Amino acid sequence: MAEPGAPKTSVEFKVVVLGDKGVGKTCLVLRFIEGYFAPKQQSTIGAFFLTKQITATDGTICKMQIWDTAGQERFRAMAPLYYRNAAVAVVCFDIMDEESFQKMKDWVEELRTNVPEGKLVLAIACTKTDMESKRVVSRARAEHFATEVGGIICETSAKENWGVNELFARVCDRAMETRGPELRGQASGGAAGTGGRKSKFGLSPAAHAAGFGGDTGAESGGGCCG
Amino acid sequence: MDASPEAILHRVRERDAQMCVLLQRTELLNRVHRGAISELPPSPEGMGGRDSLKARLAVIYGCQDQAETVLNEAVPLLQPPPPPSSPVASTPDAYTKAIRSLLSTPKANTAATARSTRAPSNSSGHPRVQSGGPPSVRRAERGDGGRNSSSAVTYRVFLERLTRSESEGFVEAIRLFLFSILGNGGAVNPAAGRPRASSNSDIRRETEEVEVYGSSFLSQRCAEFFLAMQNAMGVHTSWAELGYDSLVACREHLERFVMSKIHPLAFGSKLDGAVDASISARLQSLQFLTPHDLNVSVYAREETVLTLAQEELRKMGRGRCPGDIVSRVVRCCDTLFALIDQGRRFKQGVGRGGGGGGGKGRGEGDSNVSSWRPERDPAGTADDFLPVLIYVVLRARVPRLHSMCEYVQAFHSPVALMSRPGYCFVALRSAVEFLMTLNGAAVGMSEQDFRRRALDAAIGVDASS
């Protein structure tokens, strides 16, 4: 049954951050997160896995589970484990480094080969754009590539805090546009990978609100794990 | 009877789906019952059946339309279900009968039963809670990071809620689900574990007719069952109030509860001795690798701490439910993060110019300095973390590592596998993957040298063991 008076919808999805070593993946993510986590939490969490909640334009609350990955070449083969079940991939390259641009293309190619069409929102982050004077990868080239592969592209600088929030906001909106209903279904129970038969338990909100007090007489609950 | 896997899966799913509908019916009736008994004036005379029910519902919901809707939903549910199309379920289903008889149990009777069984249920329930539950649960919650550390229900609260009378539908569903997996000889234990059933012999007798599927399609069935239960809790009068985070937690508690019962069977279905053995042999042959070979950051080469992390990782094998296993991995990873964090700070204190000879991981750390530094230095990035984890996995040589990973992958909640514990778990899997595919070039030695050393390490063990 539909949920007419549902207060708000929230979804939870996975964002994987890829890119060559040294392009500033971690900095990008930390800049995005900073101010959200209390410092004491961050000390144990590390910079490899972070969560941030933002509201998409359509009002959906998106809880992003951001997975940073190791950039070293020798861990390349393990990447599929990381981007598996991700809804969004942010692929980074350093505008001062031609090689990282090529690597970024490889990543995009790999994602397009391994992830079924329409399952993944692709975003390309040009990092370190504050170093405009040392730029070697022109904006036009990057944009051309992004259009070709149908990805979001964003010029960012973690140092100056340019474009970082914009990048993630656009990513969220795109994810809602393309996979919104699917993700919403998942958030309520996480049916990823299962056949996805959803039982219909929707009862009217008024019914929930009726809130009859429970009887106190306890049923036996069965033993718990022994 | 069609015995192809697809047909069986279809039947199993149909059965589970039916049970979910019944669950919904229980809740609906609970609502009607309670309203009728506790809050309503006696029904007006001359009104029977449907009209009377509708009048009562109208009082509950304060609106005729609403009552009509609920009633329309409820009435078909109150009828016996239409004969299912699947041939196997042509006789009235035991699930159906059991829950129907549950529904028709008079209120007073239920209450009396509850009273009479209260003491035994407490005495049998509590010690178990203490032995198996809270300590590991608390850890699991902490390991869950930002998700639901503050307000989510604990395992103990979850069990307590299950014992309330309004949760009887859930309890019954869980019991039948377990029954359909373990069968009569399983740990479902109608007499001991469920004293209430002994007073309701109808239910018990009928559940014995539940078809037993054992481990076929177990992981799909579990996933669907947990999801259905979470959805059902989400609209249940007394569970829905817990809120989203707690419901997610409840799903995990339910998973813990169910998996701890069916662990031998579920784990057995994922046990792959051959792969486990090949991993063990491989790890054995790689024991010659040093932290330096694996590019472990210099500040993370702290043997005492690494040994602690290994110990944590080895405890994986003690976990029975996926959540427990993963929480061990998380603890191992936490130890490593703390180590990396400490090391970095110390190094910063001493000064940055420690020479360029460190691992590759440190290389990136340094290059970040030139662009922008987060206000707090990260407690270790993915680049630092993976090499040290690989080293720990290599040293810990956890038995049955592969089977355990497969078990977690198959039965753990997908939501949990997407969040922080999931990250640690994936890191573990990728560490194993790395070690299995490692060659000489990756550790900076010639292929010949690498093979020779691997052979030596392998033989060394054969001789000693």
Word description of this protein:
The complex is a heterodimer of chains A (226) and B (465). Chain A has 226 residues and is of the alpha/beta class. Chain A has one domain: 3-Layer(aba) Sandwich (Rossmann fold). In chain A, strands 2-3-1-4-5-6 form a six-stranded mixed β-sheet, sandwiched between helices. In chain A, a hairpin with a 5-residue loop joins strand 2 and strand 3. The radius of gyration of chain A is 21 Å and the shape is globular. Chain B is mainly alpha-helical. Among the domains of chain B are: 71 residues, no CATH class; 89 residues, Orthogonal Bundle (Serum Albumin, Chain A, Domain 1); 154 residues, Glutathione S-transferase Yfyf (Class Pi), Chain A, domain 2 (Up-down Bundle), CATH 1.20.1050.80. Chain B is elongated, with a radius of gyration of 28 Å. In chain B, helix 1 runs parallel beside helix 4, helix 13 crosses helix 21 and helix 15 crosses helix 20. The longest helix of chain B has 35 residues. Chain A: Keywords: Nucleotide-binding. Chain A: GO terms for molecular function: GTP binding; GTPase activity. Chain A: It holds the Pfam family Ras. Chain A: This is Rab50, RAB family GTPase. Chain B: One of its GO terms (cellular component) is cytosol.
Helix and strand content put the structural class of chain B at mainly alpha
Total of helices of chain B: 21
Strand content of chain B: under 5%
CATH class of the domain at 273-345 and 379-459 in chain B: Mainly Alpha
Whole-number total of structural domains of chain A = 1
CATH architecture of chain A: 3-Layer(aba) Sandwich
Mean pLDDT of chain A: 74
Q: How many E strands of chain A? A: 6
- Look at the helices and sheets of chain A and give the structural class: alpha/beta
The tally of helices of chain A reads 7
**Radius of gyration of chain B in whole Å, from Cα?**
28 Å
Keywords (chain A): Nucleotide-binding
Organism (chain A): Ectocarpus siliculosus (Brown alga)
GO molecular function (chain A): GTP binding; GTPase activity
Protein name (chain A): Rab50, RAB family GTPase
